[in-house]
Amino acid sequence: MDMAPTRIGRALVVIVDDRAGHTEHEDTSGPLVTELLEEGGFVVDAVVTVPGEAVAIRNALNTAVIGGVDLVVTVGGTGVSPRDVTSDATAGVLDRSIPGIAEAIRASGLAAGAVDAGLSRGLVGVSGSTLVVNLAPSRAAIRDGMATLTPLAPHVIEELSGLDEA
Fold it and tell me: How many CB atoms lie within 10 A of CB 41?
Protein backbone atom coordinates (compact mmCIF):
# COMPACT_ATOMS: atom_id res chain seq x y z
CA MET A 1 0.00 0.00 0.00
CA ASP A 2 1.20 3.52 -0.78
CA MET A 3 2.70 5.58 2.00
CA ALA A 4 0.54 8.53 0.93
CA PRO A 5 -3.08 7.49 0.35
CA THR A 6 -5.08 9.08 -2.42
CA ARG A 7 -7.00 12.11 -1.20
CA ILE A 8 -10.63 11.06 -1.06
CA GLY A 9 -12.19 14.23 0.28
CA ARG A 10 -12.70 16.62 3.15
CA ALA A 11 -14.07 15.47 6.49
CA LEU A 12 -15.33 17.01 9.70
CA VAL A 13 -15.46 15.27 13.07
CA VAL A 14 -18.22 16.22 15.52
CA ILE A 15 -17.75 15.08 19.11
CA VAL A 16 -21.03 15.04 21.04
CA ASP A 17 -20.29 15.55 24.72
CA ASP A 18 -23.16 15.54 27.20
CA ARG A 19 -20.79 16.24 30.10
CA ALA A 20 -21.09 20.02 29.89
CA GLY A 21 -18.87 21.85 32.31
CA HIS A 22 -16.41 19.00 32.78
CA THR A 23 -13.39 20.92 31.56
CA GLU A 24 -11.02 18.29 32.98
CA HIS A 25 -12.36 15.84 30.37
CA GLU A 26 -9.82 15.42 27.61
CA ASP A 27 -11.18 14.38 24.23
CA THR A 28 -9.33 11.35 22.90
CA SER A 29 -12.00 10.47 20.32
CA GLY A 30 -11.31 13.44 18.07
CA PRO A 31 -7.61 12.66 17.55
CA LEU A 32 -8.40 8.96 17.03
CA VAL A 33 -11.06 9.61 14.38
CA THR A 34 -8.81 12.21 12.73
CA GLU A 35 -5.92 9.75 12.54
CA LEU A 36 -8.13 7.02 11.07
CA LEU A 37 -9.69 9.41 8.54
CA GLU A 38 -6.27 10.68 7.45
CA GLU A 39 -5.04 7.08 7.08
CA GLY A 40 -8.10 6.52 4.89
CA GLY A 41 -7.19 9.41 2.59
CA PHE A 42 -9.33 12.20 4.03
CA VAL A 43 -8.27 15.73 4.89
CA VAL A 44 -9.85 16.60 8.23
CA ASP A 45 -10.98 20.23 8.27
CA ALA A 46 -11.68 20.30 12.01
CA VAL A 47 -12.81 18.49 15.13
CA VAL A 48 -15.78 20.26 16.69
CA THR A 49 -17.17 19.48 20.14
CA VAL A 50 -20.84 20.21 20.73
CA PRO A 51 -23.11 19.64 23.74
CA GLY A 52 -25.42 16.65 23.62
CA GLU A 53 -28.40 18.73 22.53
CA ALA A 54 -30.33 18.13 19.32
CA VAL A 55 -30.18 21.77 18.16
CA ALA A 56 -26.40 21.99 18.63
CA ILE A 57 -25.86 18.69 16.81
CA ARG A 58 -28.15 19.68 13.92
CA ASN A 59 -26.39 23.05 13.63
CA ALA A 60 -22.97 21.37 13.44
CA LEU A 61 -24.19 18.94 10.78
CA ASN A 62 -25.87 21.66 8.71
CA THR A 63 -22.75 23.84 8.93
CA ALA A 64 -20.64 20.94 7.63
CA VAL A 65 -23.05 20.26 4.76
CA ILE A 66 -23.20 23.94 3.80
CA GLY A 67 -19.39 24.06 4.07
CA GLY A 68 -19.17 21.33 1.46
CA VAL A 69 -17.34 18.61 3.37
CA ASP A 70 -17.60 15.14 1.85
CA LEU A 71 -17.92 13.25 5.14
CA VAL A 72 -19.06 14.10 8.66
CA VAL A 73 -18.38 11.60 11.43
CA THR A 74 -20.16 12.18 14.74
CA VAL A 75 -19.00 10.42 17.88
CA GLY A 76 -21.26 9.91 20.87
CA GLY A 77 -24.91 10.29 21.79
CA THR A 78 -26.01 7.16 19.91
CA GLY A 79 -27.16 4.99 22.83
CA VAL A 80 -30.54 4.28 24.29
CA SER A 81 -30.59 6.71 27.23
CA PRO A 82 -32.80 9.81 27.08
CA ARG A 83 -29.61 11.95 26.86
CA ASP A 84 -28.57 10.24 23.62
CA VAL A 85 -30.03 12.46 20.90
CA THR A 86 -27.41 12.34 18.12
CA SER A 87 -29.39 9.86 16.01
CA ASP A 88 -32.59 11.87 16.38
CA ALA A 89 -30.80 15.11 15.42
CA THR A 90 -29.12 13.40 12.47
CA ALA A 91 -32.43 12.01 11.18
CA GLY A 92 -33.69 15.58 10.83
CA VAL A 93 -30.75 16.52 8.61
CA LEU A 94 -30.55 13.49 6.28
CA ASP A 95 -32.06 13.56 2.80
CA ARG A 96 -31.57 9.81 2.36
CA SER A 97 -30.50 7.11 4.79
CA ILE A 98 -28.05 4.32 4.01
CA PRO A 99 -29.17 1.65 6.48
CA GLY A 100 -26.82 -1.03 5.11
CA ILE A 101 -23.71 0.85 6.26
CA ALA A 102 -25.23 1.61 9.68
CA GLU A 103 -26.16 -2.07 10.08
CA ALA A 104 -22.66 -3.17 9.01
CA ILE A 105 -21.07 -0.82 11.58
CA ARG A 106 -23.36 -2.19 14.33
CA ALA A 107 -22.80 -5.84 13.37
CA SER A 108 -19.03 -5.61 13.05
CA GLY A 109 -18.78 -3.60 16.27
CA LEU A 110 -20.79 -6.15 18.20
CA ALA A 111 -18.75 -9.01 16.70
CA ALA A 112 -15.58 -7.20 17.84
CA GLY A 113 -16.92 -6.86 21.38
CA ALA A 114 -17.83 -3.16 21.25
CA VAL A 115 -21.18 -3.43 23.04
CA ASP A 116 -21.94 0.29 22.56
CA ALA A 117 -21.53 -0.18 18.79
CA GLY A 118 -23.96 -3.09 18.80
CA LEU A 119 -26.52 -1.15 20.83
CA SER A 120 -26.03 2.06 18.87
CA ARG A 121 -28.97 3.82 17.23
CA GLY A 122 -26.45 5.52 14.95
CA LEU A 123 -27.51 6.46 11.46
CA VAL A 124 -25.66 6.72 8.17
CA GLY A 125 -27.00 8.76 5.30
CA VAL A 126 -26.66 11.62 2.89
CA SER A 127 -27.42 15.28 3.42
CA GLY A 128 -26.96 17.28 0.24
CA SER A 129 -23.71 15.84 -1.12
CA THR A 130 -22.28 14.99 2.31
CA LEU A 131 -22.06 11.51 3.82
CA VAL A 132 -23.04 11.64 7.52
CA VAL A 133 -22.05 8.80 9.88
CA ASN A 134 -22.86 8.40 13.61
CA LEU A 135 -20.42 6.32 15.67
CA ALA A 136 -20.67 5.09 19.25
CA PRO A 137 -18.06 6.67 21.54
CA SER A 138 -15.87 3.81 22.80
CA ARG A 139 -12.41 3.50 21.27
CA ALA A 140 -13.29 -0.04 20.13
CA ALA A 141 -16.50 1.19 18.46
CA ILE A 142 -14.61 4.02 16.75
CA ARG A 143 -11.79 1.79 15.49
CA ASP A 144 -14.16 -0.89 14.25
CA GLY A 145 -16.67 1.58 12.83
CA MET A 146 -13.95 3.38 10.90
CA ALA A 147 -12.56 0.06 9.62
CA THR A 148 -16.03 -0.77 8.31
CA LEU A 149 -16.65 2.72 6.92
CA THR A 150 -13.28 3.44 5.29
CA PRO A 151 -13.63 1.09 2.29
CA LEU A 152 -17.28 2.09 1.72
CA ALA A 153 -17.07 5.89 2.02
CA PRO A 154 -15.13 6.51 -1.22
CA HIS A 155 -17.84 4.72 -3.23
CA VAL A 156 -20.59 6.86 -1.71
CA ILE A 157 -18.60 10.07 -2.15
CA GLU A 158 -17.79 9.16 -5.76
CA GLU A 159 -21.48 8.61 -6.50
CA LEU A 160 -22.44 11.88 -4.80
CA SER A 161 -19.85 13.82 -6.79
CA GLY A 162 -20.98 12.29 -10.09
CA LEU A 163 -17.51 10.89 -10.87
CA ASP A 164 -18.97 7.45 -11.51
CA GLU A 165 -20.83 8.77 -14.58
CA ALA A 166 -17.60 9.39 -16.54
Answer: 17
